[in-house]
Amino acid sequence: MNKLTVKEEDGTNYSRLGGRALTSKIIHDEVPATCHPLGAHNKLIFATGLLTGSGASSADRYSVGAKSPLTGGIKEANAGGITGLTLGKLGIKALVFENIRDDFKIIHLSKDGVQFADATPILGKDLSETATWLRDSYGKHVAVWLIGVSGEQKMNLAAIAGQDKDGEPTRFNGRGGLGAVAGSKGIKAIVIDASGVEKNRPKDKERFRQALKQYHSWLMETPGTAKVLPELGTAALVETTNALGALPTRNFSIGSMEDYKNITGETLRKTIMERGGEGTPTHACMPGCIIRCSNVYVNKAGKKVTGPIEYENIGLLGSNLDISDLDDIAELNRLCNEYGIDTIETGGALGVLMAQNVISFGDAKAAIEALHEVKKGSPLGRIIGSGADIIGKIYGEPHVPTVKGQTMPAYDPRAVKGLGVTYATSPMGADHTAGQTVRVQINHHAPEGQVNVSKNAQTVNTIWDHLGMCMFSSGAVQNRWDILADLVSGYSGEPFTGDDMLKIANETLKLEHTFNRRAGFTKAQDKLPDYFYEEENKASKTVFDVPANELETIGVTRNDL
Amino acid sequence: MNKLTVKEEDGTNYSRLGGRALTSKIIHDEVPATCHPLGAHNKLIFATGLLTGSGASSADRYSVGAKSPLTGGIKEANAGGITGLTLGKLGIKALVFENIRDDFKIIHLSKDGVQFADATPILGKDLSETATWLRDSYGKHVAVWLIGVSGEQKMNLAAIAGQDKDGEPTRFNGRGGLGAVAGSKGIKAIVIDASGVEKNRPKDKERFRQALKQYHSWLMETPGTAKVLPELGTAALVETTNALGALPTRNFSIGSMEDYKNITGETLRKTIMERGGEGTPTHACMPGCIIRCSNVYVNKAGKKVTGPIEYENIGLLGSNLDISDLDDIAELNRLCNEYGIDTIETGGALGVLMAQNVISFGDAKAAIEALHEVKKGSPLGRIIGSGADIIGKIYGEPHVPTVKGQTMPAYDPRAVKGLGVTYATSPMGADHTAGQTVRVQINHHAPEGQVNVSKNAQTVNTIWDHLGMCMFSSGAVQNRWDILADLVSGYSGEPFTGDDMLKIANETLKLEHTFNRRAGFTKAQDKLPDYFYEEENKASKTVFDVPANELETIGVTRNDL
């Protein structure tokens, strides 16, 4: 077994990079693109955003990056909660994990340094139990990252979990199997203790204060961030996408669901409110967040079941499986959280199994039982754990809603074509957070203009990922990035402009495409599965018809690489 | 369900192309490279070699080609037996299957045309039972192609079976999952009835006779084809590769086996001879074959178990699994044949499952039980059916001996480096028949010269695949291709030179690489898995160290594409 060594490095060279800009830079520079994602040459990087810990609303996110075992390309997944924030408090910009090992460790970070402990006591347990054990062992004040039974088994849909402000391990770096990379490196949990450390304060207080005031006022003025998201959460989208014919239903075969009223944001809110008890339709994952899009879902007795139930979870674990009972969706959601698996990839996986009649569409009981197999690591559990794309290969099913091996989030690309462009061309594979276009004012059914819309969204999302900001603030900020630059300048004391942010975002995308190109990606992978071009989505009455030569202008074949 | 239509096309434009040269030409010209291998746009092509049916020894092979669901690239797999020969008797140069369907048909070809029948009565049955049913239904004189339960389930390791001269369905187009492509197109069996058809005779009898005499005399003079292969079969190689440290053992972790004496060609022959009964160590799959490398293996009572037991099967189902009892290997071999699955891919799959302790190394009973799951289509059966590469992804195992998704045949590329070059650079993925170098006089452990050796072997194998010739004749013919050209000229009556053959072979390789490049392959896929470069094979004391820049001169990045 490899010796455990810790090396501290000066981050000065990276002072202008945070979040995804930093993880992608390190991966591009240091990871051989063709290496095995679960082998010794891959690196796993946790990096705080430039604004993480600044006190700005919705800006405490952090990124995790690596070469992905799911896509085979570069990957970044970010999340909120308090763990990134706590890492930043220690003055640590990034954690970089190298090499692999066979046993599992708990890594403890504090102002006194790093310590390693045997993780055996928490192996095989559910995430909530593990998080409780860690807080019982290390103190209620620590923040944790951890992987679940899926990450221990190096499954493609394994996520990394951080904790929210209430200590729940429910904030996920969900996509791309980064939990499997953590598993390959023997990282079961990272415990961060920031006690005895001074709070980071803005270097240029006045500048920061001014910018913050402006930024927060926008968040509080804009209907999306001030009212819709706090009241209905992301589930507000169900009405929108169902009307567009973009709500994935029955393994992305159609874009609307007869029973969709059962799973809307309104119904979700009403259910939680009526049941009372521990439930709340409005919950912040990060302290001081104005948007508070999260929620806590409860059973009929008012006892907490899971949280948050988000739009993507409803779309993938609900309509995509022809399941329209919120209690069933909540139980699937809970199991995903307990096992540390990505809800989107899990819904994609179950959808393909349903298309193959291994489980029946709409059979929530069977879907729940199937998820239990993930924990057991039985053959069926391993199959689910490998993700939708591989399940398609195992069962010979051509209807598999993936790009670069990754399941599409809950927007049928025939009905939100800008997202189809993002799925096809993003270095991240099918990922709405890499270039969300559903809120753009455009005819989502028309092919025209979607490449520009996606290109812009991909850049904006990269800026947000760089700063550690939640993408939900982008509707309020729009393209007034200078305020964000002022926040960064005020916080860091270093000059920073909106143009700098744009430049770094574009440079980041370029590094990511370059990595993927080295890893073997070509325009042949910058496409959707055949059936989205050929089989009409009967709800939207459209196929995906953005021309291939337009896609080539922004994907891995773009001219400036 | 799609209507069944039959279209007859004039083959004049393709008169100089046969076997692999023809299948690859059609795939290159007509199949969209990024299409789903099991979707409507893929084509499945059966093509006879230019010498098939001519009466030349070991020259009745035929090729099957398609885009492979296993590799995602172009694929050709050829086999002997009598079915290709019988197709040629009907004057049919190639069968091209388009589109997909959900039900299964039996396709009957005779001089009176094509007929389709419902295949329901033979679904789910073992191959030997199916072949018997077909001969009982259509007459003992017909020749058949068929797929097994694996092809019905569209598994990646599904093969297509033809029959040998005794009517046994044991000649396999094994590699690349072509049986799954047949399954996707609803082809359960093709029955060919050549009764009432005149035998094809050489157009230039004298020229053909002269060349044939020369060619046959070489086969009868050369120790390999005259003595070693007829006596010991391909299993003669066990001694050679074990001594080289190239015999894959315990999931390609080392290249020699302690008990290798139990599985040598000598032991195989001795066992068959001693047991007597229905067994024979020397058997021809094609009528008139001088080499007769096949065999029939029997149990202690002299009853037939399976046949043939070949070197690759011993290496992959034996040493690679740490199994050294010929009766166990024979039973695994038998199950592969009955279920219509590729023995190499199956051995690779079981090897990775053993590396993951899903089954224990050396546990033949468990391996046999696991194979039964393939027929059942249980989750474990589906996992095995997906092939070694995907199993690596399902279990997070980096030690997976595949290139372009396909399991290496029974030569550790650290110890036979020319084959390592072939594995890395052939358009076919890891495939010894695409460029066999083990019999070349070279230091197989040294990196020097291997690229040239492989390049030459890749060309020669392509020539052989074009003509429908068995690669085992190449040792006798060496580079005296003019005799082969004379055979072709004599048989077809058209001018044909050795240079023509060379040119067509090189053009075929070029088309194949071009297809793969369009399908998304780059030099990133022209490599072996990391561990062959980094972890020493303790038997050969070598790693694979042929420089990457040398590989680039002959793979998908070669300059002339």
Automatic annotation (TrEMBL), chains A, B:
What GO molecular function annotations does the UniProt record carry, in alphabetical order? 4 iron, 4 sulfur cluster binding; electron transfer activity; metal ion binding; oxidoreductase activity, acting on the aldehyde or oxo group of donors, iron-sulfur protein as acceptor
What range(s) does the Aldehyde ferredoxin oxidoreductase N-terminal domain occupy?
1-196
Which keywords has UniProt assigned to this entry? Answer: 4Fe-4S, Iron, Iron-sulfur, Metal-binding, Oxidoreductase
Source organism, top-level taxon:
Bacteria
> What Pfam families does the record tag this protein with?
AFOR_C, AFOR_N
Which cofactor(s) does the record list?
A: [4Fe-4S] cluster; tungstopterin
Key word Iron-sulfur present: yes
Name the protein family.
Belongs to the AOR/FOR family.
What is the name listed in the Swiss-Prot or TrEMBL entry for this protein? Aldehyde ferredoxin oxidoreductase
Taxonomic classification: Bacteria, Bacillati, Bacillota, Bacilli, Bacillales
